[in-house]
Design a protein that fits this description.
Blueprint (H helix, E strand, L loop, with lengths): L2 H4 L7 H40 L6 E6 L2 E6 H39 L2 E5 L19 E5 L1
Parallel strand pairs: 3-4
Antiparallel strand pairs: 1-2
Helix pairs in contact: 2-3
Amino acid sequence: MSKSAAKGGKSKSNEEIFAGFQALRTEQRKQAAKISELEMDLNEHKIVIETLRGVDGGRKCFRMVGGVLVERTVADVLPELQSNMEQLPRALEALGQQLAQKGQEINDYIEAHDIRVQRADRPPAAADAVPSQPAKSNVLVASG
């Protein structure tokens, strides 16, 4: 009889716990990538705004809008870029808070399911370090 069946089928198997943990880590990595992308966008906005400030307002410029290159004037584009640049820090702050919440969610998940994370840069702890304790249903995760 399996461990999950012995407990009335309410507990998750080690594979399900591991899959849940991996899903949380994947979400966290996606959020971190989005933050990095927005930081690059913010830097690009700053560079373009600085460049356009020294240019005549009636001069033609091109802007990518939804994958389409649109011809506008500097006077039309500059206020839009400045508005976008002002909104990016707020978006970055919100994503930073979501990332912190996801980190806490992962820590809670690790604690709730008694997960032991084994780092690739450290050797695993000796198996005979605590032989007197009975075996628990631990999940060992190698971080990469």
